[in-house]
Amino acid sequence: MSAKTLTNLVHQLENFFDRIKGRIPGRAPVHILPYICMGNRRKIYLKGRVLENKRILPVTNCDRFWVNLYNAFQRYESDEVPFAQLRLLCAGQELLVTADEEGYFEAWLLLPEMGDQKLAALRVRLELLGPVRQGQIQPSVEINPLIIPEDCRFGVISDIDDTVVRTDVLRPLKMLVNIFFKSARTRQAFLGTAGFYRALSAGRAGDKQNPIYYVSTSPWNLFDLLLEYMNIQGFPPNPTLYLRDWGITSDEFLPVENSEHKNLFIQLVLELFPEMRLILIGDSGQQDPEIYAGVADEFAGRVLAIYLREVTGKPARIESIHRLRARLARRGIPVILADTVLPMAEHAAGRGWISQEAFSQIREQVQPGRSVLPFQRRQAR
User: Fold this and answer.
1) CB 169 within 8 A of CB 162
2) Residue 220 in 3-state DSSP?
């Protein structure tokens, strides 16, 4: 039996058990989880999921390992509502949407012309029409879409794992410890990173709302944990996260390719905001340098800079990024590779993307003597 045939068989079995579960009376409440709701003055992109409630235990800085292990199991063992039917109401319009077999749904909402006050007060209402099991209540939720100001100078698209939170993707055993035994309060942060992102969002004068988007191959099951982590660490409020489904499909057990996933979201942002230019932030551990270089090639003039956290310590990998950096430099696109955000913040301050005061505060949080390697000092100038 081929791997593809086996994958397809497991996928069919999962669908079979989902159909059986749907006929059993349920006590757990159903929730509509709106993951993304963003747009411009003309249209809104919405993505979410319909799930049965999972009981996540509250966490503290002194959690025992079993609490985090229990919460990790609850998150990954998700009970989706397959093919849920929803009604979306916005600005006097109604749209019917059907979720996929994993409970995920996507929609585009076209907006009529409206003034700034009405746009700021805009609400999107989501109502679950079905199916619900006997004993469950049909939920509804209202959200404010994130409408990007037309005068925003730039946007930021950032990776998450080993870029804003230490995940140790290149060390499988450590990565498993982080996933299963650490909470949002005990996940390790990188010094100065939250302050750097706040500075980028605020801009040089400190009065902007430059959007920051986070795209990762981490599963949507970690959405609440990542939101809590960013809130605790002081990242800009109301972040937009674009994660990935790790459910079994007819093609694969688990996602193994991340370039297509990240490229799709970056293209979505660039098309939704055609006047916006981007700062791309990632790390050297996986495919971020190559993905971002491809974006710079495909969308000429749209990439302001690429910032990469060096996490490998491998000379061959660093050298390959140097070659990529030299190629992009000929087109006027700077690539900063560093083991902390300090050289990135120094470069951003020099370009007028963040304030000098913000840079000074970031420098206070990072130990300068250990923050810049010799080759990084040269390229940060």
Assistant:
1) yes
2) helix
Distance CA(305)–CA(157), nearest Å, equals: 11
Element (H, E) at 95: strand 93-98
| Residue 60 Ramachandran class (φ > 0 left, ψ -120 to 50 alpha, else beta) | beta
Per DSSP, the residues of 102-117 read TSEEEEEEE-----HH
Domain's final residue, options 129, 147, 165: 147
On whether both 165 and 191 belong to a single domain, the answer is yes
Same domain, residue pair 107 and 160: no
Residue 331 CA to residue 351 CA, distance in Å, equals 17
Residue 139: asked if its preceding bond is cis (omega within 30°), the reply is: no
In the chain, which residues have pLDDT < 50? 1-26, 370-381
Domain tally, the chain: 2
Strands 146-147 and 30-39: parallel
In this structure, the answer to whether residues 142 and 269 fall within a common structural domain is no
Q: For 161-183, what is each residue's pLDDT tens digit?
A: 999 998 866 666 665 656 655 66
* Plot region of 115 (φ>0 → left; ψ -120 to 50 → alpha; else → beta): beta
Strand order in the sheet with 93-98: 93-98, 85-90, 124-130, 140-143
Q: What is the reported pTM?
A: 0.84
CA distance 140 to 62: 35
Token pair in block for residue 218: 């981490």
* Angle, helix 65-76 to helix 172-181, in steps of 10 degrees: 90
Residues forming beta bridges with residue 87, ordered by sequence position: 96, 127
Q: Taking a C-beta distance cutoff of 8 angstroms, is the pair 329, 373 a contact? A: no
